[in-house]
Amino acid sequence: MSGVQCLQLDVGNSSAKWRLMVGSEVLARGVYRRDDEASRTRLLACSDTVQQIWVASVASEEAEFQLGTLLEERWQVQPWFARSEARTGTLVNSYQQPLRMGVDRWLAMLGAWHRHSARLCVVDAGSALTIDLVGADGRHQGGYIIPGPSLMERALLLDTDRVRFAEEAVYDLAPGTSTAEAVRHGIALAQAAAVRVAMEQAGEPRPTLYLCGGGAETLQRLLGGAGEWIPDLVFEGLEAMAAMQGRDTGGE
Q: How many domains does the chain fold into?
């Protein structure tokens, strides 16, 4: 297939999502885990002709170095690691030290802003639940970082002797009638309520709500279908930043 093949990775603390692009077409996608040989093999076998590698990473410097080395040795292409900036286009960071903001948050905001330059509430439901507000002028108005469902559950089980359960329970907003339900439904209530209160705190006009991250589909259900779920929002922000830096793939 003609065109520049660009491998894009969204790297979290435990795993990385990746997709292989030619222009706006997704050729392949998957999940990479550093200690999972099968996932490593699938990533490295996705193409023989990758010309660009773009990475959004919140992993440690050591993990980034190991990943960068792995990718460069496979394709002889030096990966570009995106970083949070004081300003990207018309999107303006509120942090005095922009690099201290997780690049996934910044790129999710940039992806949403690129879609709709208006008041925004951008929610990334991953290991942590992050909620960020952007004004109509493109200025980041601040945000919230809250433990995600797995972290909430782990903290509760670690610090309480009598909260134990073996049965499965889905995340739901109804009051729980077992310990499993009480824990999972309580976590669901906290996650959904956090987003609703953040939207209320934002005032009027009401921000447009965008959702991304591994838990976004469940969160949207808990919110009664509110917001727009964009699974590739961080990737969209990565592409927007790359374009502004002249890292064009040459596609349409």
A: 2
